[in-house]
Each structure stands twice: as structure tokens, then as C-alpha cells.
Design goal:
The complex is a heterotetramer, with two copies of chain A, one copy of chain B and one copy of chain C. Chain A is an alpha+beta fold. In chain B, helix 20 packs parallel to helix 21 and helix 23 packs antiparallel against helix 26. In chain C, about 20% of the residues lie in helices and about 25% in strands. Chain C contains five helices and eleven strands. In chain C, the strands form two sheets. In chain C, strands 2-1-3-4-11-10-9-6-7 form a nine-stranded mixed β-sheet, with helices on both faces. The chains are: A alpha+beta, B alpha+beta, C alpha/beta. Chains in contact: A-B, A-C, A-D, B-C, B-D, C-D. The structure holds adenosine-5'-diphosphate (ADP) and magnesium ion (MG). The site of magnesium ion (MG) has 2 residues of chain B, from loops.
Chain lengths: ~90, ~750, ~230, ~90
């Protein structure tokens, strides 16, 4: 068993309104960043966990997304491996 | 005006051909489609078909309910605006008018509880402020399955935070509502939101387009592909795969934009620069545009490429049917478009001219100058066929109603255990878990917050206030629809008089199953008749409402649930009565009497899992007398508290009065001798009963006022210190518990279930 | 006393605050966030609500509004600034007060009456209270969980800048009296100079018996009195 | 000028409390993922913008973080380039 850190990114589905993104976009424009054409806001979730292998960790994180971390009706998710954590193993 | 006729319109490139299948997909029956062809004098284009489909859906066209709704009483001298507008309006005195309405968002909430509930609140707020009224209060009426599955907890949690986040952000206090948990709502939660708005009489504005050539403007949020065909969707049954297939229809609410739109709309109305304004709600631009044209007896023409859109490449069909939230259609006075733009600009919102009012009676849509839809407006809005169907009571329900309950009436002696079980049932237990997520005090006008019998909002600058409540016990309606609907109206009225408000008018939300089924149509018809009778008897006319049919999953319908949203008027805020006991030593008086029916009670559900038996009867004259008596007692200031007896019966009502909001509980010492089984005395949900408390020197007055109105009344006990505990004795049975134990059962029931980590038992 | 109530897009307690200021004799006016200039005002009030929907972080976008430059100079020059709820969040985001208001630890919006203990009765905002007095005042927020780094927190306590704490009926700072998880039950703090107060509870909603409490009145009378004597 | 998409990840500072992370951690444990040892919840913000070069875009995004997107008291941020968007340039 090793300790891994994974990064989950949960994003609003394309086409759905993203009120947060809209408000931030508006604010960035009025702060002078006129080249900004779109902002979408999602979540970045960092999961530290024990698993047998990187693949097992990734699989577990995907299952977590389906079950809890992402709303299947409004959000898409992506999972990636950040790396193995030190001082782990048992 | 020339008689409108549809000009020939060539099919738009890329649009599907109109086949029988396409027509069926649009939810139109062959007969209805034939009617469309007659109106058009030709085959409709795809865009036109979409428009008809939305406008003739149950949601917009009321095809299965319109004839029944005509039976309801709608008039009274104080009614300023009855059904047919965005909201009903009544006079509440001193130049003030109250706009109020209820609306459902059941289907969207089943698919995405948070957004479904949030956008439900958003929609009802817009219905109020488009009348020129400032929203001052929200109520929410909710139904879910039992809380023992993860899915139901997810729906309940999501709906409550959706209702809360939206109203909190816009800054409208929640002043009440209700929730019922029962397996009858398992697959189909009910989410009804009600809003109240105040205005001066002269600020009333209605939604109609008149004035040839007046510019039509789209204001607020941009149009995206959200919720295309939501109105049609709301008029269909859900099935196993609804989650998947309904995804594109999820609408996301933006309460921040709503708040800006609210301020901008009220400023627009005050500016006099506009002559009409309407929410683009269900069926979006289609319904707002055609209804404004229909009501004004004029026509409109709109250019789709002028509509501000959020996504590239939207077709006219999509733009017309999008249900993107936080948008309004405005008719500006000619030449004052810039004024409109400036007001919207101040609130950091967009406004675009998208068309104009015409005088040819047509609902005409252009794309880059090419006509893509050209429909006579009046037949589109008014020509939807309406049906009167056959209604037959289901045998199954007759059997349930007439079931022999004798074996459930046996228990006697110490009934404390059953009582604590009942008090800890989420249906009876404190709803603080819900309303502590709602801002209840913003706008500094909330005189009675959720937790009492009715919410109360004072009218600044006067001594007056308005009160509101929502009520319906779906089990009663299920077992006997006419009686159940009368009970819903009666309970609402009792809740109002308990705070000292004169019941004035109602709005209602008819949540039912598929009316094409004879036994559902029976429920719908009977419930409407029950509502008619009760509203007639109480002089509380119906000023509007909403119909949500097809609440079924895999063929199983919800309990018929005609939610009543009733409003009342208080002339003197200093006389408001509250539900909680105020002093140890006060006498407790029970007004009304127990008629002995036990059907549909929470006790049967909790102890035996049963929804059966004869539900409590409703004596409309007796109810009316009770209301008048309590109002009189309120005016004479002889009461220290007043509380309606409902779910969980007398024992539960006593506990609610004793516990209040939990800060300063009291004990109770009650003894009464009725010729009834003890479970019926303690837990029966007989209608027409109100528990009041009074200081001992006022008790005589309470009793004699009751006698004057021929209302049964008896002193049943006294309020004691919390230390003395809770004791209620009836013939053959009793409950006795410490205040701490009843408090624990009552206040922790819902938090214990809901604050456990998500999915712990899933 | 001329009082400016700043309205941001999404403010929704601006009117309540305006009324509270009027009730104690303040001459209140609204200032829209895009306007500039608060010269001539004796005090600035930042109302509660959801400026910019509380999107991104509560108060983060409002903090960028043009008027905030003026509010910051006003505060730095010693002018009294009171931020309530969203106003407190804006004050933290703008750096006029240290720390940040995180999500309530229940992750739910919390709306109810709470009890507050007055920790300091010698500020310009609390002179009409008694130290140790217990107030009943509504809260209504989703992000009121006060947090800062260790040094800041220690400095706040050492300098006595905590003005209100959540307490139980016995006046103790127990965990179950804390509605949001705030560090040391903090409900309100001032800046070092004592002229900027941020608090999560809503004193402007506790101004009348009819609405449940009058415990907020003394906060506004304190402010008026301090300005009249200075 | 080209169109770029950037990803900004805003994370709660280590050591500071993260009520959302805590709640999710708790739920994951009770759903049976016992190997999870820590969860931190931050934001993933997608910025579409015009810039002269990828470096200019990255720099602009970092400036946005300093000014608005991250709270220096409680959050750290990271910016990365997702890629150039098609159909851009002018
Ligand atoms: N969904 C809800 N939203 C707001 N308040 C609610 C909700 N459900 C219940 N309440 C409040 O909780 C209290 C008790 O509810 P309920 O038992 O349904 O009242 P009653 O039986 O007197 O009609 C009422 O004040 C009601 O307004
Ligand atoms: Mg009840």
C-alpha cells in the first residue's frame, strides 16, 4: 500500500449557465482585463489516499466522483495523479 | 383589426420535416394537431410546431384543468386582480395592495433538487415583481418520500438549500411553509413556492402588449439552451431514465442577477417608460410574447437574431423555447427605449430591442428578416382544446378508506412511547432544520417567523400586517379528495386566525398525477369542488394558482395534493398572537371538538405504516364560527397563545405550544374526558380545533366568547413550569414525560437524520 | 450625523441599515458602489447581503468596486466604518480588517437568533452597552466562520480587539453556542485604531420589540453619541 | 494575438481549516473509502483569453489571481496553460 495524492477537477457542464463565472468575468473586464472572453468555475479537490497502485487510486477517485464529488446532472469531472506521498506505506 | 391569418412560410433550412412522429414527440394529440392545422390553414413549420407544443402543454394551456378551475369562486370586493395575470392582487387597506401566487417546480426538482428548487423560487419572485409589487416574503410547501433512503435525503437536502440559497441571496425572508414525508411522494417530490409582494394600489401594472409599434425588449440574462421544452417536460410523467434524458433541461438559477432584475424592474415600472412587463418563465419568449399579445388583443413581431444569446448557433426554435432564467420581456413606450436601457445599465444588466407590437393579431417570428413563424396569437393562447374527462373513484382507495381500524384503536394506559415516536416523526417534529437555512428576518418586517401558525409581515408606516400560510394534508385528500381539499382550506384559515389575521384570499397549487386516468381525474375534480365549497364558505376567493399534473413515476401517482396558500390581514400588529405558551399558570382551553375519525392520521402511519380509514370530516359552518370566535378573542386581547391542532393530534399540538422555539419551554398539565378511545383523544387529527391559553382571569371571557359563536370550548388544563413536565390524561390513557425528553424527540429528529454524513446508510 | 450606506449590486440589507441609522437620529443616504466620494459623511456603513452573489468568495468582487478606495481612505483617516455580515466580509477582503470568513462548519446557511457577549464597552460602537452584557441578535449567513493565521489571532486577543463573541444563555463561549465554527467564538472585531468594526450578526434587525429584540439599538446610539462628542 | 485557455487552481492554505474538505472526507469514510486520509477543496477556474503569447497569458492569469481570484490570507494558487483555442486570432 502507498499513499497517493490525486487531483479531481469538477466543472460545470458546457452549455449550463455558470453564474459565478459570469460575475467573475464581469469583474475582470471592469478591472481592465478586456481580453478575457470566458470564465468557468469548478472545483479542484485534492484527495490523499492509500491504495495498492496508482491505477487503483485513480479508479477509486473516479468512483468517488460518480458517487459524491460531482453532480452527474450538472457537472463533468476529471481525475489526475499528483503523485506518491512520502512517508507512507504500511 | 383584420382577421389574422397565417401567411405561407417556407420551411427553414435544417429543420426537421413535420411527421406524425415529430408531432407526437411534441406532446400534441392527433386531434390537437388537427386543430393546429385548422388555425394555421396549412402545415405548421417546425418552429411553429414547437410554439404550439409549449403553449398547449398542460403547464401553459391548462387543457385538463381549465374547465374545473372555472368552478372556483374568484370574486370579492377586496379582490383587485383575480386569476389570469402573473399573480392575484388584493386590497389590504390604507392604500396597500398585496400580490401573491404559488408555483410548482416538481419535475425539475426531481431531476436536480438544488437547481430545481432554486429556479422555482426565482420564477415566483418574478411573477410578483412584474405586477409592480416588491416581494416581501416567500413560503415553501414541500413533499418527499420517507427519509430512510439516501436518494430522498439527497432530494430533501438539495431542495431546502436551493430554496434557501436563492431567497437568501435575493434578500426575501422566508416566513413559512410545510413539509410532509410519506412514501406516496417517493419518486416525485413536490416543490411549491409562494411569494407575497406589497405595493401601493397605483403601482399595479399588468402584462399586456398594446400600442401599435411599441418596442419589445428582452431584459436581464441572456438566452441559452437551458430547459428547452421545460413546459412540455413538466407535463409528462417521469420514467426510470428521466435523470439521463432530462439533463439538457436543467436550468441553473442566478439569484444575483435576479436581485438586480428585481430592482431594475421596479425602477422601470416606476419610471413610466414601459407599458407592460412579463417574466419569460415556462416556455420562455414564446409564452411571454404570445400571452402579452393575446391579452392586449394585438400582435407582436420579433427578430430572433436580435435576442442576446449566451451560446453560438442557436436556432429560432431554441431561442423561442429556452427557459433560461432571470429574463423579462418588456413593452417600452415608443421613443423611451433609451431610458429602459439606462435603467438596466445602472443595474449592470442588458436590454435589447427584439421586436415590436403590431396590430395584425399575429405572433410573428423572424430570422434575419425571414419569417419563420406566423401564428394567430389569440387562438394560440386561448384556442388550446380543453377537456372534461370522466372521473371514477378507484376501488382500491374506497377499500382503504373503509378499512376497519379497530385493531389500531386498542392501545390504552401509558401511551408515552407512542407519543414520543410520533413527536419524533419528521412530519410532526420541529422544522427548524429547514427554516434555520432560510433568512427569515431580512427586510426587518417579519413579525412572526416560521415556526408559528402563519408567517406575518408588517406593513411599514402602518399598524397593519399581512399573514400567510400554506397547507395540505395529502393523505386526507388521497383517502377522500373532496373532504381533504376542504380540510386544506380550513387548516389554512385556522392557521391565519391563530395569529390574529382575517383570512382574505387564496392561491393554490394543484399537484396531481396523470389526469388522463379516470381515477386521477376524479381526484382532481373532487378536490376542486372541495376547495370551491370551503373558499365559498370562508369568503376567501381564489385569485390564482398553478397546476402541476403528471406527477407520476413508472405509473405511480403522488397523493393528490392541492396545496392552499392563504393570505390574511391584521389591522393591529400589537395584537398578534403566537403559538407558544407565554406563562406558567395560564389556563389551556380547547376550542372545537373531536369528531372521532382516525383515518390518514400520522399515528397510523408511524405505528402501522398505514394510510387508510375515514379522514376527518369538515364542518364548514363550524369552522367559520371557530374562525370568527378566535378573531374576536384576538381583538379583545384575551388570549396569550393560539395554535391549530393538526398532524399528531392534540398531544402533539400541546407539545408544540409548550416547547415553542426551544428557548423557554413550559410544562403542561392537561386532563380531558371524551367518550373516545384514548389514541383518538390524544392523537386523532380531527379538524376544527384550536388550542388557546389565557391568564386565569380571562378564561371566563374566552369561554363566553366561544359560547357566543356556538363553538364548543372547555378548559382542559394549565401551563406549568418546565420542571413539572408534560402530562396529558384522557379517558383510558395518558402520556407523561419530562420536558427534556419531549424536547429531545421534537427538536433532534430531523437533524439526526440529515446531519449524519452523506451516504452513511446508502 | 451624516451616514453613508453603501449599496453594492446584491446588497440586500442596505434598506434595513438605513432605517436603523434613521431610527437613532442619523441622517442616512444610500451611495451606489459606482459613485465616488464620501466626503462630508461622518460614518460609513457596509450592509449585509450577497454582493455579486457572493460568487468566488463573499465580498471579494465588491471589494474591487470604485467606492472601496474611498472607504479605505476614509477608514485610514480615522472615520468610523461599520460592516455587518457581507459588510464584514468586504472589510476583510479589502484588508481593513484582518483574517477571512470561511464557510460555516455546518456547511449550511445559518439563520436564527444568537446570543452575543459584549467584550468591549469602550469602543465607539459599544459605549452604550455594558461589558459582559448579553445580546439577542439574529444571524443569517453561510460564511461567518472567522479565521486568520496564528499571529493575527493572537494579536486580536492580546490587543482586545474582539468586540462580540457567541455565547450560551449562561454567557459562556461554549462550542454549541458557536453557530459557524468561528475561532474563539468571534462574532465581531475592530481594527487596531478601533474605528472599523466588522460583525456577522445583524444589529439592524434587532431594533424593535415587534420583530423580536431591541438589543441592536445601543450599537447605533453609541455610534451617534461618539460622533456628536468628538 | 491568440486565444488561450488557462486553468487556475486555488487551494486552501495548508494548516487552515477547510470545512468543505472535512465534510467530504467524513462522507467518503462513511461510504466505505477508509483509505482516504485527507481532502482539501479548492477551486478550478478556467480562463479563456486573448494574449500575445502563452507567457503573456500565464502572466495575466497570475496577476488576476493576485488581484481577485485568490485570497492571500487563506489561499494559494497555481496557474497552468490548457492550450491554444481554435478559431482565434485577429
Ligand atoms: N418547508 C418549510 N419552510 C419554511 N417553514 C416551514 C417549512 N416546513 C414547516 N415550516 C414551518 O414549521 C412550522 C410547523 O409546520 P407545520 O407542522 O406544517 O405547521 P402547521 O401544522 O401548524 O401548519 C410552521 O411555522 C411552518 O411554517
Ligand atoms: Mg404541524
Amino acid at each position: 500500500m502507498s499513499q497517493y495524492r490525486l487531483e479531481v477537477r469538477v466543472k460545470p457542464r458546457p452549455g449550463l449557465l455558470d453564474p459565478q463565472g459570469k460575475a467573475i468575468h464581469h469583474s475582470l473586464n471592469s478591472l481592465g482585463w478586456e481580453g478575457v472572453s470566458d470564465i468557468r468555475v469548478g472545483k479542484a479537490i485534492y484527495v490523499d489516499m492509500e491504495a495498492d497502485s496508482p491505477d487503483a487510486a485513480l479508479e477509486a477517485a473516479e468512483a468517488m466522483c460518480r458517487k459524491l464529488l460531482a453532480n452527474p446532472v450538472t457537472e463533468d469531472f476529471e481525475v489526475s495523479m499528483v503523485g506518491e506521498l512520502e512517508g507512507a506505506g504500511s | 383589426m383584420i382577421k389574422p391569418t397565417a401567411a405561407p412560410v417556407p420551411p427553414r433550412k435544417g429543420d426537421p420535416e413535420i411527421t406524425a412522429e415529430v408531432v407526437a414527440d411534441h406532446g400534441l394529440s392527433p386531434d390537437e394537431y388537427e386543430r393546429v392545422q385548422q388555425i394555421m390553414g396549412r402545415t405548421p413549420t417546425y418552429t411553429e410546431l414547437g410554439v404550439f407544443s409549449a403553449m398547449w402543454s398542460e403547464h401553459c394551456g391548462y387543457k385538463n384543468s381549465k374547465r374545473l378551475l372555472r368552478l372556483l369562486p374568484t370574486k370579492a370586493p377586496w379582490v383587485i386582480q383575480g386569476p389570469g395575470e402573473n399573480a392575484g392582487v388584493i386590497d389590504v387597506g390604507e392604500g396597500f395592495a398585496l400580490a401573491f401566487k404559488i408555483e410548482s417546480h416538481n419535475h425539475p426538482s426531481a431531476v436536480e433538487p438544488y437547481q430545481g428548487a432554486a429556479t422555482g423560487v426565482g420564477g415566483i419572485l418574478r411573477d410578483i415583481f412584474t405586477m409592480g409589487a416588491r416581494p416581501v416574503a416567500v413560503l415553501d410547501s414541500l413533499r418527499f418520500g420517507d427519509l430512510d433512503t439516501g436518494r430522498v435525503r439527497y432530494l430533501f437536502g438539495g431542495v431546502v438549500s436551493g430554496v434557501g440559497d436563492y431567497g437568501n441571496c435575493v434578500g426575501i425572508p422566508n416566513i413559512g411553509g410545510e413539509v410532509q414525508f410519506d412514501r406516496g411522494y417517493e419518486g416525485n417530490p413536490i416543490v411549491n413556492a409562494m411569494c407575497l409582494g406589497l405595493m401601493k394600489h397605483e403601482d399595479l401594472i399588468t402584462a399586456s402588449a398594446s400600442g401599435d409599434g411599441s418596442p419589445l425588449m428582452a431584459v436581464g440574462a441572456r438566452t441559452g439552451r437551458d430547459g428547452i421544452h421545460g413546459a412540455t417536460f413538466a407535463s409528462e410523467e417521469l420514467s426510470e431514465d428521466s435523470d439521463e434524458s432530462s439533463r439538457p433541461q436543467v436550468q441553473v438559477g442566478d439569484p444575483f442577477t435576479e436581485k438586480l432584475l428585481l430592482e431594475a424592474s421596479l425602477e422601470l415600472i416606476a419610471s413610466g417608460a414601459i407599458s407592460g412587463i412579463q417574466d419569460m418563465g415556462a416556455a420562455g419568449i414564446t409564452s411571454s410574447g404570445s400571452e402579452m399579445a393575446g391579452r392586449g388583443g394585438s400582435g407582436i413581431e420579433m427578430e430572433m437574431t436580435d435576442v442576446p444569446i449566451r451560446e453560438e448557433g442557436m436556432t429560432p426554435y431554441e431561442i423561442l423555447l429556452s427557459e433560461s432564467q432571470e429574463r423579462m420581456l418588456v413593452v417600452a413606450k415608443p421613443g423611451r427605449e433609451d431610458e429602459v436601457r439606462q435603467i438596466l445599465e445602472k443595474w449592470e444588466l442588458e436590454a435589447a430591442v427584439i421586436g415590436r407590437v403590431t396590430n395584425d393579431g399575429m405572433f410573428r417570428v423572424l430570422e434575419e428578416g425571414q419569417v419563420v413563424a406566423d401564428i394567430p396569437a389569440l387562438p394560440l393562447t386561448e384556442g388550446c382544446p380543453t377537456y372534461e374527462r370522466e372521473g371514477i373513484e378507484s376501488e382500491e382507495i374506497v377499500a382503504l378508506r373503509t378499512m376497519d381500524l379497530t385493531e389500531h384503536l386498542i392501545p390504552e394506559g401509558d401511551l408515552t412511547k407512542s407519543f414520543l415516536l410520533l413527536l419524533g416523526s419528521p412530519n410532526v417534529a420541529s422544522k427548524q432544520w429547514i427554516y434555520h437555512q432560510y433568512d427569515t428576518t431580512v427586510r426587518t418586517a417579519t413579525a412572526v417567523r416560521p415556526g408559528g401558525d402563519s408567517g406575518v409581515i408588517r406593513i411599514r408606516g402602518t399598524r397593519r400586517a399581512v399573514a400567510a400560510t400554506t397547507d395540505c394534508n395529502g393523505r386526507f385528500v388521497y383517502l377522500e379528495p373532496r373532504t381533504g381539499a376542504m380540510a386544506a382550506v380550513a387548516e389554512a384559515a385556522r392557521n391565519l386566525v391563530c395569529v390574529g389575521a382575517l383570512p382574505t384570499a387564496i392561491t393554490n397549487n394543484l399537484n396531481f398525477g396523470n389526469p388522463l386516468k379516470a381515477h386521477i381525474y376524479y381526484q382532481l375534480r373532487e378536490a376542486v369542488l372541495g376547495m370551491r365549497d370551503a373558499c365559498g364558505a370562508f369568503e376567501t376567493p381564489v385569485t390564482g394558482g398553478n397546476v402541476s399534473l403528471f406527477n407520476e413515476t413508472d405509473g405511480k401517482a403522488i397523493y393528490p395534493t392541492p396545496v392552499i396558500g392563504m393570505v390574511g390581514v391584521i389591522d393591529d400588529v400589537s395584537k398578534i398572537t403566537r403559538h407558544a405558551f407565554q406563562n406558567a399558570g395560564d389556563d389551556i382551553v380547547l376550542l372545537g371538538s373531536n369528531t372521532g375519525e382516525f383515518g390518514g392520521s400520522e399515528y397510523l402511519y408511524v405505528t402501522a405504516g398505514l394510510v387508510a380509514g375515514q379522514p376527518p370530516s369538515v364542518d364548514l359552518d363550524g369552522e367559520r364560527a371557530l374562525q370568527q370566535a378566535v378573531l374576536k378573542m384576538n381583538h379583545e386581547e384575551v388570549l396569550n397563545s393560539a395554535h391549530d391542532c393538526s398532524e399528531g393530534g392534540l398531544a402533539s399540538a400541546l407539545a408544540e405550544c409548550a416547547l415553542g422555539d426551544g428557548d423557554a419551554p413550559f410544562g403542561v398539565d392537561v386532563e380531558l374526558d371524551e367518550d373516545l378511545r384514548p389514541v383518538i383523544s390524544l392523537f386523532g387529527e380531527s379538524q376544527g380545533r384550536i388550542l388557546v391559553s389565557a391568564s386565569p382571569d380571562k378564561t371566563e371571557q374566552v369561554l363566553s366568547l366561544a359560547a357566543r359563536y356556538e363553538v364548543p370550548a372547555m378548559k382542559i388544563g394549565t401551563v406549568t413550569d418546565a420542571d413539572a413536565g408534560f402530562s396529558v390524561k384522557v379517558r383510558g390513557g395518558s402520556v407523561a414525560a419530562s420536558t427534556a425528553d419531549i424536547s429531545e424527540a421534537y427538536f433532534t429528529a430531523i437533524p439526526k437524520i440529515m446531519d449524519a454524513p452523506a451516504g452513511s446508510e446508502a | 450625523m451624516k451616514v453613508a450606506v453603501i449599496t453594492f449590486p446584491g446588497s440586500n440589507c442596505d434598506y434595513d441599515l438605513y432605517k436603523a441609522a434613521q431610527q437613532v437620529g442619523g441622517d442616512a443616504s444610500f451611495i451606489w458602489h459606482r459613485e465616488r466620494g464620501i466626503e462630508g459623511y461622518d460614518a460609513v456603513l457596509l450592509p449585509g447581503g450577497f454582493s455579486y452573489g457572493d460568487y468566488l468568495r463573499a465580498g471579494a468582487i465588491a471589494r474591487m468596486s470604485p467606492i472601496m478606495e474611498d472607504v479605505i481612505s476614509f477608514a485610514n483617516a480615522g472615520g468610523p466604518v461599520l460592516g455587518i455580515c457581507n459588510g464584514f466580509q468586504i472589510l476583510c477582503e479589502s484588508g481593513l480588517l484582518p483574517g477571512a470568513l470561511m464557510h460555516n462548519n455546518s456547511l449550511k446557511f445559518e439563520s436564527k437568533d444568537v446570543l452575543l457577549r459584549v467584550e468591549r464597552a469602550d469602543t465607539m460602537f459599544t459605549a452604550d452597552y455594558k461589558a459582559g452584557q448579553i445580546l439577542r441578535i439574529p444571524i443569517a449567513h453561510g460564511e461567518g466562520n472567522y479565521e486568520a493565521d496564528k499571529e493575527t489571532l493572537e494579536a486580536l486577543e492580546a490587543e482586545g480587539r474582539v468586540v462580540f463573541r457567541y455565547v450560551n444563555a449562561a454567557g459562556e463561549t461554549s462550542a454549541n453556542a458557536n453557530p459557524n465554527g468561528s475561532w474563539h467564538n468571534i462574532a465581531g472585531i475592530t481594527n487596531r485604531a478601533g474605528n472599523v468594526l466588522g460583525m456577522m450578526p445583524h444589529p439592524e434587525r434587532a431594533m424593535e420589540e415587534l420583530l423580536g429584540s431591541t438589543d441592536g439599538v445601543a450599537l447605533f446610539t453609541s455610534m451617534v453619541a461618539s460622533l456628536q462628542t468628538s
